[in-house]
Amino acid sequence: MMNIEQKLPELPYDKNALNPIISEETFDFHYGKHHAAYVNNLKGMVEGTVLEEAGVKEVIQKAHQDKNLGLFNNAAQHWNHSFFWHCLSPNGGGTPQGEIKKMIDRDFGSFDAFKSKFSETAVKLFGCGWAWLAQGEQGKLEIIPMKEAYTPLTENKTPILTLDVWEHAYYIDYRNARPKFVEGFWEIVNWDFANKNLQ
């Protein structure tokens, strides 16, 4: 699983690499302002505490356990975004290969059935949040809609892939047409990253 620190990570590609599906302007706001704000808020909240040097996953779990919603939201949004950037690739898209393909076929019947269900989950999630593909403790893949900053990390599940469906992820490029953004995701989804996350 990704080890994410309390700093804004480098993007794994140039800000214009995913054009026209995600524009450079969207990255300027989504990564450069929204994600950066979560990181800055998080650092301010943990400064001078025992969590100042902790990994972000540890902060998420402690904040969730203590019901510290402000800290949880900023830590989880930082983790979720850091993970999300790797779920996208200028060389992505197409159909999955390797172990992820076998597991999708096993747990959803076919790639088309999985794609349809994941897309529907992402489009229908009310308000803001994330559509996750996660792996449960028994190894089974599942699609989980999660509101706001929530993450499979608090459910003892392993994140495999995610799609951000907060409005700031798509509004510059698609206005309110979330389904068009979800459609574009399949052209840049990073199956290599998904394979690396499997347990």
Any chance you could write out the topology, listing elements then pairs?
Elements: H1 24-46, H2 56-65, H3 69-86, H4 99-108, H5 111-124, E1 129-135, E2 141-147, E3 158-164, H6 171-174, H7 178-188, H8 191-197
Helix pairs in contact: 1-3, 2-3, 5-7
Strand content: 5-15%
- Architecture per CATH nomenclature, i.e. the level-2 architecture of the largest domain: 3-Layer(bab) Sandwich
| Name given to the CATH homologous superfamily of the largest domain | Iron/manganese superoxide dismutase, C-terminal domain
Summarize the helix and strand pattern as letters: HHHHHEEEHHH
Give me the secondary-structure category: mainly alpha
Helix content class: 40-55%
Rounded to the nearest angstrom, the distance between the terminal CA atoms is 9 Å
* CATH T-level topology of the largest domain: minor pseudopilin epsh fold
Strand order across the largest sheet: 2-1-3
Overall mean pLDDT: 97
- Unreliable residue stretches: none
What is the assembly state of the chains in this entry? single chain
Largest sheet: number of strands, sense, barrel closure: 3 strands, antiparallel
Please give the number of β-strands. 3
> In CATH's first tier, which class of the largest domain applies?
Alpha Beta
Number of domain units = 2
Output the radius of gyration: 16 Å
Q: What's the number of helices?
A: 8
Domain Manganese/iron superoxide dismutase C-terminal: 96-197
Protein name: Superoxide dismutase
Binding site for Mn(2+): 30, 81, 164, 168
GO molecular function, one term: superoxide dismutase activity
